[in-house]
Amino acid sequence: MGSSQMSRPGRLRPGHSCPGLAPACRPPACRPPACRPRPKRTYPSRLRPSRRRETGSALIELTWLGLLLIIPLVYAVISIITVQRSAFGATEAVRAAGRAYVLAPDVPTANQRAYDAARLAMRDQGLALDPADLVITCRPMPQSCLQPGSTVQVSLALEVALPLVPTLLGQSAASISVDTSHTEGYGVYREAGQ
Questions:
Q1: How far out from the chain centre does Cα 104 lie?
Q2: Distance (Å, rounded) from C-alpha 87 to C-alpha 85?
Q3: Which of 21, 58, 112, 125 has its CA 20 to 30 A from that of 160?
């Protein structure tokens, strides 16, 4: 009865039985019903648990989560760049205006040159300058402009509107104030201007 009776492990050749083999050594066809492996369950396609429906959902969730986090981050970066550009332009504008003022021969020319220099510095940053925003003050007294030992203080105050924020009643709903000033000395040993 040994291995000659079986053509393949687990199958009997027709007409042979296996009563003499130990239960653990018997092929599946000779085992008692309690020891036989259970047949694999088959489900109808609509009841079968589908792993295919879950495939790719992590990628979609990660994409949406990335978009939800990246959009505010990009907006914050654009807002910071806009405010920094305005601050840099304002700083350069008051510096250029102060220098242009003290190099002018007289006060009316100094005022015009100071405004032109500030406007040019702001235009370099892509910004417009309103003449009312630029304030020029002479010290120690307002009448001491272009006098030896005097100083000229140029101040600029801007309201920088945040990007992509709609206007409300003609004004920006969200803005950041940028204030800067620069003091330029006229020089003690210079000739007084008119």
A1: 45
A2: 5
A3: 112
